Amino acid sequence: MTYAPVVHYLRQTNIRRERLLDVPGRVLVSPGQKVTSNDIVAESANPTGHFFMDIRKLLKVDTETADKLIQRKKGERLEKGDILAETGGAFSRVVRAPVNCLVTEINAGVMIMETHGEPVRIEAGLPGFVRELKGEFGVIIESGGALVQGVWGNGRINAGPIVVLCDSPEQELTIRQLEGCARGSIAVGGYCYTGEVFRQASEMQLNGLVLSAINPELVELAENLSFPLVLIEGFGKIPLNETAFNIFREYEKRDAGINAMKWDQFSGNRPEILIPFQNQALQPPEVDKFAPGQIVHIKLPPHFGEVGTILERYDAQINLPNGLRAPAAVLRKQNGDRITVPLANLELII
After folding, report:
1. Which of 78, 99, 129, 136 could be bridged to 82 by S-S, CB 3.0 to 4.6 A?
2. Are residues 249 and 166 part of one domain?
3. Residue 301 pLDDT > 90, yes or no?
4. Domain span holding position 70
Protein backbone atom coordinates (compact mmCIF):
# COMPACT_ATOMS: atom_id res chain seq x y z
CA MET A 1 0.00 0.00 0.00
CA THR A 2 1.33 3.43 -0.97
CA TYR A 3 0.91 6.07 1.71
CA ALA A 4 0.25 9.62 0.60
CA PRO A 5 1.82 12.80 1.97
CA VAL A 6 -0.79 15.40 2.84
CA VAL A 7 -0.95 19.14 2.21
CA HIS A 8 -3.75 21.00 4.00
CA TYR A 9 -6.08 23.49 2.33
CA LEU A 10 -8.90 23.46 4.86
CA ARG A 11 -11.83 25.80 5.37
CA GLN A 12 -12.35 24.52 8.90
CA THR A 13 -10.12 22.45 11.15
CA ASN A 14 -8.46 22.13 14.55
CA ILE A 15 -4.69 21.87 14.74
CA ARG A 16 -2.02 21.39 17.39
CA ARG A 17 1.56 22.51 16.92
CA GLU A 18 4.61 21.81 19.10
CA ARG A 19 6.81 24.84 19.72
CA LEU A 20 9.99 23.50 21.30
CA LEU A 21 13.49 24.65 22.19
CA ASP A 22 16.51 22.56 21.21
CA VAL A 23 17.78 22.62 24.81
CA PRO A 24 16.02 23.05 28.17
CA GLY A 25 15.06 26.61 29.03
CA ARG A 26 12.16 28.58 30.51
CA VAL A 27 8.52 28.28 29.48
CA LEU A 28 6.92 31.74 29.66
CA VAL A 29 3.22 30.87 29.33
CA SER A 30 0.65 28.86 31.28
CA PRO A 31 -1.82 26.12 30.22
CA GLY A 32 -4.98 27.65 28.77
CA GLN A 33 -3.34 31.01 28.08
CA LYS A 34 -4.38 32.77 24.86
CA VAL A 35 -1.47 33.62 22.55
CA THR A 36 -0.89 35.45 19.29
CA SER A 37 1.50 34.37 16.53
CA ASN A 38 4.29 36.65 17.79
CA ASP A 39 4.06 35.87 21.53
CA ILE A 40 7.27 34.39 23.01
CA VAL A 41 6.32 31.07 24.64
CA ALA A 42 9.77 29.80 25.69
CA GLU A 43 13.40 30.88 25.78
CA SER A 44 16.79 29.37 26.51
CA ALA A 45 20.32 30.64 27.06
CA ASN A 46 22.53 31.07 24.02
CA PRO A 47 26.13 30.04 24.92
CA THR A 48 28.71 31.88 22.84
CA GLY A 49 32.05 30.97 24.45
CA HIS A 50 34.12 30.13 27.56
CA PHE A 51 36.94 31.80 29.45
CA PHE A 52 39.08 31.05 32.53
CA MET A 53 39.61 33.11 35.67
CA ASP A 54 42.69 31.86 37.58
CA ILE A 55 41.95 33.23 41.06
CA ARG A 56 45.34 32.01 42.36
CA LYS A 57 47.30 34.24 40.00
CA LEU A 58 44.92 37.18 40.20
CA LEU A 59 45.03 37.28 44.02
CA LYS A 60 48.59 35.92 44.33
CA VAL A 61 47.57 33.09 46.67
CA ASP A 62 47.98 29.32 46.73
CA THR A 63 45.31 26.89 45.50
CA GLU A 64 43.84 26.09 48.93
CA THR A 65 43.49 29.78 49.82
CA ALA A 66 41.98 30.61 46.42
CA ASP A 67 39.28 27.97 46.92
CA LYS A 68 38.35 29.54 50.25
CA LEU A 69 38.22 33.07 48.84
CA ILE A 70 35.95 32.23 45.88
CA GLN A 71 32.44 33.47 46.70
CA ARG A 72 30.52 31.88 43.82
CA LYS A 73 29.11 28.42 43.08
CA LYS A 74 28.90 26.28 39.98
CA GLY A 75 25.74 27.07 37.99
CA GLU A 76 25.44 30.64 39.30
CA ARG A 77 24.60 33.41 36.80
CA LEU A 78 26.63 36.60 37.21
CA GLU A 79 26.36 40.18 36.03
CA LYS A 80 29.34 42.22 34.89
CA GLY A 81 31.10 43.59 37.99
CA ASP A 82 29.88 40.91 40.42
CA ILE A 83 32.56 39.89 42.92
CA LEU A 84 34.11 36.47 42.24
CA ALA A 85 36.66 36.46 45.08
CA GLU A 86 38.36 38.87 47.49
CA THR A 87 41.04 38.71 50.15
CA GLY A 88 39.43 41.08 52.68
CA GLY A 89 41.33 43.26 55.15
CA ALA A 90 42.54 46.84 54.91
CA PHE A 91 44.20 46.29 51.51
CA SER A 92 41.65 43.87 50.08
CA ARG A 93 42.22 42.64 46.53
CA VAL A 94 39.05 41.88 44.52
CA VAL A 95 38.34 39.88 41.34
CA ARG A 96 35.15 40.79 39.49
CA ALA A 97 33.25 39.23 36.58
CA PRO A 98 34.37 41.06 33.40
CA VAL A 99 31.06 40.34 31.55
CA ASN A 100 27.68 38.74 32.15
CA CYS A 101 28.35 35.02 32.44
CA LEU A 102 27.54 31.64 33.96
CA VAL A 103 29.88 29.72 36.29
CA THR A 104 30.28 26.29 34.71
CA GLU A 105 33.15 24.87 36.79
CA ILE A 106 35.33 25.68 39.83
CA ASN A 107 38.41 23.54 40.37
CA ALA A 108 41.80 24.08 42.07
CA GLY A 109 41.39 27.84 42.32
CA VAL A 110 40.32 28.25 38.68
CA MET A 111 36.83 29.36 37.57
CA ILE A 112 35.48 28.46 34.11
CA MET A 113 32.85 30.90 32.85
CA GLU A 114 30.40 30.71 29.97
CA THR A 115 29.30 33.84 28.12
CA HIS A 116 25.89 34.24 26.49
CA GLY A 117 24.42 36.13 23.58
CA GLU A 118 20.79 37.06 23.15
CA PRO A 119 18.49 34.28 24.43
CA VAL A 120 17.00 31.83 21.92
CA ARG A 121 13.29 32.61 21.86
CA ILE A 122 10.43 30.53 20.45
CA GLU A 123 7.29 32.28 19.20
CA ALA A 124 3.84 30.69 19.34
CA GLY A 125 3.74 30.64 15.53
CA LEU A 126 -0.04 30.82 15.33
CA PRO A 127 -2.94 32.41 17.23
CA GLY A 128 -4.54 30.01 19.69
CA PHE A 129 -4.32 28.62 23.24
CA VAL A 130 -1.61 26.83 25.19
CA ARG A 131 -2.83 23.25 25.23
CA GLU A 132 0.04 21.62 27.13
CA LEU A 133 3.48 22.34 28.55
CA LYS A 134 6.40 20.17 27.42
CA GLY A 135 8.59 20.40 30.50
CA GLU A 136 11.40 22.94 30.13
CA PHE A 137 11.38 22.66 26.34
CA GLY A 138 8.20 24.42 25.22
CA VAL A 139 4.49 24.02 24.63
CA ILE A 140 1.75 22.64 22.42
CA ILE A 141 -0.45 25.34 20.88
CA GLU A 142 -4.00 24.47 19.82
CA SER A 143 -6.08 26.52 17.43
CA GLY A 144 -8.89 26.27 14.92
CA GLY A 145 -9.91 27.93 11.70
CA ALA A 146 -9.05 27.85 8.01
CA LEU A 147 -5.60 26.46 7.16
CA VAL A 148 -3.49 26.75 4.01
CA GLN A 149 -0.03 25.20 3.82
CA GLY A 150 2.84 25.90 1.45
CA VAL A 151 6.12 24.40 0.28
CA TRP A 152 8.64 27.16 1.08
CA GLY A 153 9.02 29.88 3.71
CA ASN A 154 11.66 32.41 4.71
CA GLY A 155 11.55 31.56 8.43
CA ARG A 156 9.59 34.54 9.80
CA ILE A 157 6.34 34.80 11.79
CA ASN A 158 3.70 37.55 11.94
CA ALA A 159 -0.06 38.26 11.85
CA GLY A 160 -2.48 40.60 10.10
CA PRO A 161 -5.64 40.79 7.97
CA ILE A 162 -5.78 38.86 4.69
CA VAL A 163 -5.88 40.97 1.50
CA VAL A 164 -6.17 39.20 -1.88
CA LEU A 165 -4.40 41.22 -4.60
CA CYS A 166 -5.10 39.06 -7.65
CA ASP A 167 -8.41 38.65 -9.49
CA SER A 168 -7.49 35.14 -10.63
CA PRO A 169 -4.90 32.50 -9.61
CA GLU A 170 -2.97 32.93 -12.87
CA GLN A 171 -2.06 36.60 -12.40
CA GLU A 172 1.50 37.81 -11.90
CA LEU A 173 1.98 40.06 -8.86
CA THR A 174 2.71 43.64 -9.92
CA ILE A 175 3.69 46.87 -8.21
CA ARG A 176 0.31 48.34 -9.17
CA GLN A 177 -1.49 45.59 -7.25
CA LEU A 178 0.61 46.32 -4.18
CA GLU A 179 -0.23 50.02 -4.27
CA GLY A 180 -3.75 49.25 -3.07
CA CYS A 181 -2.57 47.07 -0.20
CA ALA A 182 -2.89 48.33 3.38
CA ARG A 183 0.16 48.42 5.62
CA GLY A 184 0.20 45.69 8.24
CA SER A 185 -1.78 43.24 6.10
CA ILE A 186 -0.95 39.77 4.79
CA ALA A 187 -1.10 40.09 1.01
CA VAL A 188 -2.00 37.16 -1.24
CA GLY A 189 -0.90 37.20 -4.87
CA GLY A 190 -0.03 35.00 -7.82
CA TYR A 191 3.56 34.46 -8.88
CA CYS A 192 6.35 37.07 -8.64
CA TYR A 193 9.09 37.36 -11.23
CA THR A 194 10.85 40.68 -10.50
CA GLY A 195 12.78 41.94 -7.51
CA GLU A 196 11.17 45.39 -7.81
CA VAL A 197 7.93 43.91 -6.51
CA PHE A 198 9.68 42.66 -3.36
CA ARG A 199 11.30 46.06 -2.83
CA GLN A 200 7.91 47.75 -3.14
CA ALA A 201 6.40 45.24 -0.70
CA SER A 202 9.13 46.09 1.84
CA GLU A 203 8.30 49.80 1.55
CA MET A 204 4.60 49.01 2.11
CA GLN A 205 5.51 47.52 5.51
CA LEU A 206 3.48 44.37 4.96
CA ASN A 207 3.08 41.89 7.80
CA GLY A 208 3.26 38.97 5.39
CA LEU A 209 3.13 37.89 1.76
CA VAL A 210 1.64 34.68 0.31
CA LEU A 211 2.46 33.83 -3.31
CA SER A 212 1.97 30.85 -5.57
CA ALA A 213 5.62 30.94 -6.74
CA ILE A 214 8.63 33.16 -7.43
CA ASN A 215 11.45 33.39 -9.91
CA PRO A 216 14.21 31.08 -8.57
CA GLU A 217 16.69 33.96 -8.98
CA LEU A 218 14.83 35.86 -6.23
CA VAL A 219 15.44 33.30 -3.47
CA GLU A 220 18.22 35.26 -1.75
CA LEU A 221 16.12 38.44 -1.82
CA ALA A 222 13.11 36.53 -0.50
CA GLU A 223 15.10 35.06 2.40
CA ASN A 224 16.14 38.56 3.51
CA LEU A 225 12.69 40.15 3.48
CA SER A 226 11.74 41.70 6.81
CA PHE A 227 8.32 40.02 6.77
CA PRO A 228 7.26 36.36 6.34
CA LEU A 229 6.90 35.01 2.81
CA VAL A 230 5.15 31.69 2.06
CA LEU A 231 5.12 30.03 -1.37
CA ILE A 232 2.17 27.71 -1.94
CA GLU A 233 3.49 26.04 -5.12
CA GLY A 234 7.23 26.67 -5.41
CA PHE A 235 9.45 28.26 -8.06
CA GLY A 236 8.63 29.36 -11.59
CA LYS A 237 5.57 30.83 -13.32
CA ILE A 238 3.06 28.62 -11.51
CA PRO A 239 -0.52 29.75 -10.83
CA LEU A 240 -2.01 29.47 -7.37
CA ASN A 241 -4.18 26.35 -7.13
CA GLU A 242 -7.89 27.19 -7.04
CA THR A 243 -8.56 25.44 -3.73
CA ALA A 244 -6.14 27.67 -1.83
CA PHE A 245 -7.18 30.76 -3.82
CA ASN A 246 -10.86 30.24 -2.94
CA ILE A 247 -10.08 29.90 0.78
CA PHE A 248 -8.21 33.20 0.80
CA ARG A 249 -11.07 34.83 -1.11
CA GLU A 250 -13.65 33.48 1.31
CA TYR A 251 -11.84 34.78 4.40
CA GLU A 252 -10.46 38.03 2.99
CA LYS A 253 -10.13 40.86 5.55
CA ARG A 254 -10.11 38.40 8.46
CA ASP A 255 -7.10 38.35 10.77
CA ALA A 256 -4.63 35.52 10.17
CA GLY A 257 -1.35 34.19 11.50
CA ILE A 258 1.46 33.40 9.05
CA ASN A 259 4.33 31.11 9.98
CA ALA A 260 6.88 30.93 7.16
CA MET A 261 8.85 28.05 8.71
CA LYS A 262 11.05 25.94 6.47
CA TRP A 263 9.38 22.79 5.12
CA ASP A 264 10.76 19.79 6.99
CA GLN A 265 9.80 16.67 5.03
CA PHE A 266 10.92 14.41 7.88
CA SER A 267 8.73 15.98 10.59
CA GLY A 268 5.96 17.07 8.20
CA ASN A 269 6.15 20.70 9.38
CA ARG A 270 5.26 23.13 6.60
CA PRO A 271 4.96 26.89 6.24
CA GLU A 272 1.30 27.76 6.84
CA ILE A 273 -1.35 30.43 7.19
CA LEU A 274 -4.08 30.03 9.82
CA ILE A 275 -7.22 32.17 9.76
CA PRO A 276 -8.62 31.53 13.26
CA PHE A 277 -12.25 31.18 14.30
CA GLN A 278 -14.26 28.97 16.65
CA ASN A 279 -15.05 25.51 15.31
CA GLN A 280 -15.40 21.89 16.31
CA ALA A 281 -13.66 20.27 13.35
CA LEU A 282 -11.38 17.27 13.76
CA GLN A 283 -7.62 17.48 13.53
CA PRO A 284 -6.46 16.71 9.98
CA PRO A 285 -4.24 13.66 9.34
CA GLU A 286 -0.64 14.13 8.23
CA VAL A 287 -0.62 10.99 6.06
CA ASP A 288 -3.36 8.97 4.40
CA LYS A 289 -3.93 6.43 1.62
CA PHE A 290 -4.64 7.23 -2.00
CA ALA A 291 -8.19 6.29 -3.04
CA PRO A 292 -10.65 7.13 -5.85
CA GLY A 293 -12.57 10.35 -5.22
CA GLN A 294 -9.74 12.09 -3.36
CA ILE A 295 -8.48 15.50 -4.46
CA VAL A 296 -4.74 15.62 -5.03
CA HIS A 297 -2.05 18.20 -5.71
CA ILE A 298 0.62 17.36 -8.32
CA LYS A 299 4.05 18.26 -6.92
CA LEU A 300 6.38 17.54 -9.86
CA PRO A 301 6.50 18.47 -13.59
CA PRO A 302 5.02 18.33 -16.18
CA HIS A 303 1.76 19.09 -14.31
CA PHE A 304 3.41 20.75 -11.31
CA GLY A 305 0.96 22.72 -9.12
CA GLU A 306 -2.22 21.41 -10.75
CA VAL A 307 -5.10 19.88 -8.83
CA GLY A 308 -7.19 16.86 -9.80
CA THR A 309 -9.48 14.09 -8.58
CA ILE A 310 -8.40 10.44 -8.46
CA LEU A 311 -10.54 8.28 -10.76
CA GLU A 312 -8.49 5.07 -10.56
CA ARG A 313 -5.44 3.95 -8.59
CA TYR A 314 -2.94 1.29 -9.65
CA ASP A 315 -0.68 -0.12 -6.92
CA ALA A 316 1.03 -2.40 -9.42
CA GLN A 317 3.55 -0.79 -11.75
CA ILE A 318 2.07 0.37 -15.06
CA ASN A 319 3.58 1.88 -18.19
CA LEU A 320 3.65 5.68 -18.06
CA PRO A 321 3.76 8.11 -21.02
CA ASN A 322 7.46 8.84 -20.32
CA GLY A 323 8.35 5.14 -20.69
CA LEU A 324 8.85 4.42 -16.97
CA ARG A 325 6.89 1.93 -14.90
CA ALA A 326 5.52 2.89 -11.48
CA PRO A 327 2.39 2.76 -9.28
CA ALA A 328 0.12 5.51 -10.60
CA ALA A 329 -3.32 7.10 -10.58
CA VAL A 330 -5.65 8.33 -13.29
CA LEU A 331 -6.76 11.89 -12.49
CA ARG A 332 -9.45 14.20 -13.79
CA LYS A 333 -8.06 17.72 -13.81
CA GLN A 334 -10.20 20.74 -13.02
CA ASN A 335 -10.59 21.44 -16.75
CA GLY A 336 -11.93 17.90 -17.32
CA ASP A 337 -8.80 16.42 -18.93
CA ARG A 338 -7.65 12.96 -17.82
CA ILE A 339 -4.00 12.28 -17.07
CA THR A 340 -1.98 9.44 -15.55
CA VAL A 341 0.47 10.47 -12.82
CA PRO A 342 2.87 8.41 -10.64
CA LEU A 343 1.68 8.17 -7.04
CA ALA A 344 5.10 9.48 -5.96
CA ASN A 345 4.28 12.79 -7.69
CA LEU A 346 1.04 13.33 -5.71
CA GLU A 347 0.02 14.65 -2.30
CA LEU A 348 -3.49 14.67 -0.90
CA ILE A 349 -5.38 17.88 -0.33
CA ILE A 350 -7.20 17.53 2.99
Report:
1. 78
2. yes
3. no
4. 47-116
